[in-house]
Amino acid sequence: MLPDDLKNLRDLCKDEQSFEKIKKSIASLVEERDKTKHQLSLLEAAIKDDYESILITELNLEEPGPEIVYVNDGFCEITGYSREEVMGKTPRILQGPKTDREVLDKLKERLINGQCFFGQAINYRKDGSEFVNQWDIHPLTNEEGVPTHWVSYQHDITERKRAEQQFIDTKIEFDELREESYCTAIDIDSEGNVISANNAFAALTGYTKDELKDCKVWEFFPDKYTHSLKKRFTEDDGESLLNGKEFKALIKHKSGLPIQVKGQSRVLDLKDQQVIRVEIENISLQKKVMDSLRKRHYNLNKETGNAE
């Protein structure tokens, strides 16, 4: 704190002991803030090749929520709003006459059910100009696995001039859609071979795309799961058991380090073969971010006498 700030704070305290206690608490809050900023910068760096914008809101989806609690510089650059202008507001400030209500209803339905959402719609900048916003929205959970916030990764795709069908056809070729999605995904054949993986999966696991094509899916999981996974791919109804399967697990980085993920698998009938598409989400970093946000929120409430 600046000398003048310390002097003003001392004048407000009833004695030196109170002053030292409050000063120590403020220093702790500043340290937590700096840690949170660093971890958020790591999160932004992890998605910078896929999405420019990050927005975090509270969990409430009913009017007037969800309130915005964080946006990064990319959000401000895309929308023209400053951080101060959007804090406490809702993402509805980006909506307008051409925003597809059907997409918004589907978004809300999935989020109410605790599911992720990937989609796009017309949004509006502060100056009223239109842009096509691609979202990838996920729940952020605390260490008990309870959702606490929503994080939305966003990308202005206006200039790409894509046909709407490219975003809603589940039978589209893998690379055309997933290479530019924040989703971390791989396609696997009926024998467990990795057919294709997007950049996000390669970055997450530390393998090159060429190396991934020589891998079996069970090689990414701890050894104790190898037998059960192999069995799924040899059973007659194995593919049906994998369709719509949601899971939480540890997968292995090429270096051997564990990564906590959650995901879902589904069976797709493509033009020339049936494949199992697995989409996963790295929740290790998200938990670290939310731990810092939660501690900061608790400390602030504690200082103001609102801690539970």
TrEMBL record:
<dbReference type="InterPro" id="IPR035965">
    <property type="entry name" value="PAS-like_dom_sf"/>
</dbReference>
<keyword id="KW-0285">Flavoprotein</keyword>
<keyword id="KW-0157">Chromophore</keyword>
<feature type="domain" description="PAS">
    <location>
        <begin position="43"/>
        <end position="114"/>
    </location>
</feature>
<dbReference type="InterPro" id="IPR001610">
    <property type="entry name" value="PAC"/>
</dbReference>
<keyword id="KW-0288">FMN</keyword>
<protein>
    <submittedName>
        <fullName>PAS domain S-box-containing protein</fullName>
    </submittedName>
</protein>
<feature type="domain" description="PAC">
    <location>
        <begin position="105"/>
        <end position="169"/>
    </location>
</feature>
<dbReference type="InterPro" id="IPR000700">
    <property type="entry name" value="PAS-assoc_C"/>
</dbReference>
<dbReference type="Pfam" id="PF13426">
    <property type="entry name" value="PAS_9"/>
</dbReference>
<dbReference type="InterPro" id="IPR000014">
    <property type="entry name" value="PAS"/>
</dbReference>
<feature type="domain" description="PAS">
    <location>
        <begin position="188"/>
        <end position="212"/>
    </location>
</feature>
